């Protein structure tokens, strides 16, 4: 179940250097999103298989002097299980695929926050 909250906004970070870019800007270790989730088999909920997900990460964006600017929750969406490899025989992975992360932020400071990431 999801609800639209007027007080929150979402920023999407996408690209091969997403982790490297955010690692230098945020206070928490963003590299944990690249770690393996173990031997779990499914990202989709089924009666016989538990789901796999990376918990959200709470972090803050600081000035170069270390002063607090904004806080956010960072999420990594689950990859689609139904994607097949080139032969169509089984799940595949596209190594050229961009890395996606979503940040849940306060909507009242969205424009200011976006300007910080553009610098």
Automatic annotation (TrEMBL):
GO-annotated biological processes: iron-sulfur cluster assembly
Stored InterPro entries: TrmE/GcvT-like (IPR027266), YgfZ/GcvT (IPR045179)
Transmembrane feature ranges: none
Lineage top rank: taxon: Eukaryota
SUPFAM superfamilies: Folate-binding domain (SSF103025)
Organism: Thalictrum thalictroides
Organism lineage string: Eukaryota, Viridiplantae, Streptophyta, Embryophyta, Tracheophyta
Protein name, per record: Glycine cleavage t-protein family
Gene Ontology CC, one term: mitochondrial matrix
């Amino acid at each position: 179940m999801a609800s639209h909250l007027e007080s929150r906004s979402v920023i999407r970070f996408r690209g091969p250097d997403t982790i490297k870019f955010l690692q230098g800007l945020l206070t928490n270790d963003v590299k944990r999103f690249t770690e393996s989730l173990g031997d779990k088999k499914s990202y989709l909920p089924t009666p016989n298989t538990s789901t796999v997900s990376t918990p959200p990460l709470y972090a803050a964006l600081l000035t170069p002097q270390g002063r607090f600017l904004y806080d956010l929750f960072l999420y990594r969406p689950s990859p689609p299980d139904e994607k097949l490899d080139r032969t169509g025989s089984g799940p595949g992975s596209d190594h050229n695929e961009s890395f996606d992360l979503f940040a849940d932020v306060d909507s009242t400071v969205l424009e200011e926050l976006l300007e910080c990431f553009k610098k």
